[in-house]
Amino acid sequence: MEQLPDAALVMVMQYLNRNDLFTCRLVCKRLGAVAVHPNAWRGRSHMYCNSTAFRACPVLRIAPCLNYLEIHMLSEEMFQCCQLMLATTRCAVRSVAVSLSGSERGVLRLAALLLRRQEALGGLRAVKIELCEEDENGDDASVLLATVASMPDLKRLVVAGITANKPNLVSHYFTSSSLEYFECELRPESASFCTFIIAAHANALQEVDLAGRPMEWICSSSTSLAPLLAGLPNLRKLRSRMLPGLEALADSTSLRELSLVVRPADQPGVGGAAALLSRAKQLRAVTLE
């Protein structure tokens, strides 16, 4: 084994499980160094929930990077031991998915802490945040939304269940558009957030999903979104409720796939949707849900 180059050892370690990699660190100095080589960890994914939260600390402390990290933060108490590690880890994660309980005070701010640290490490490209229970503290939701809205290097953003009447988004500044995929459950409370994200990343967005879960809220008040979507130069795929003013998308030269989620509450938008379908010659696939 002494004759094997480090590159060959790294290739072998890509097939070892996490515990075996940790063990290699204790065998000898050379294996210990190879065991924390970025290529040995780059393609790995890890998931942690309340019952296994304590296992996140060794990975976040030792691993140099991860491809995907999924954390279910349903109780702040279970993650108290990891708060410092979440804020100081050097493990750069490419994609982070966080499930949260809005009834647990402080959990949303803890998620924001995790995302801020990953942004600082420079490798974060995809974020998914999902609220599993209603948020009893709107300020925490605002902090979390403002955190993800201020990340200029993201390629993919999915937001489900989290709303805030007045997220503090005005102060954030983007040097360039980066987001290519945006998915958010459009509701009256989240309309301003959706508008901000779409406007900030207008030059990069290629896929937008604003439908979310089946809801009967009336979307006729969201009058600014359709013209904004129509102005996206690279939009290829759109899934949306029948927003007022959808006919403006008929002039989009890039849109190829359209999915319309039809609800009785969207009656005011029927005319615009019909005009879009009759005039849009560039569409290659249309779905009515």
Automatic annotation (TrEMBL):
InterPro entries: F-box-like_dom_sf, F-box_dom, LRR_dom_sf
Domain F-box: 1-44
Domain of life: Eukaryota
UniProt protein name: Uncharacterized protein LOC113205797 isoform X2
Species per Swiss-Prot/TrEMBL record: Frankliniella occidentalis
Gene: LOC113205797
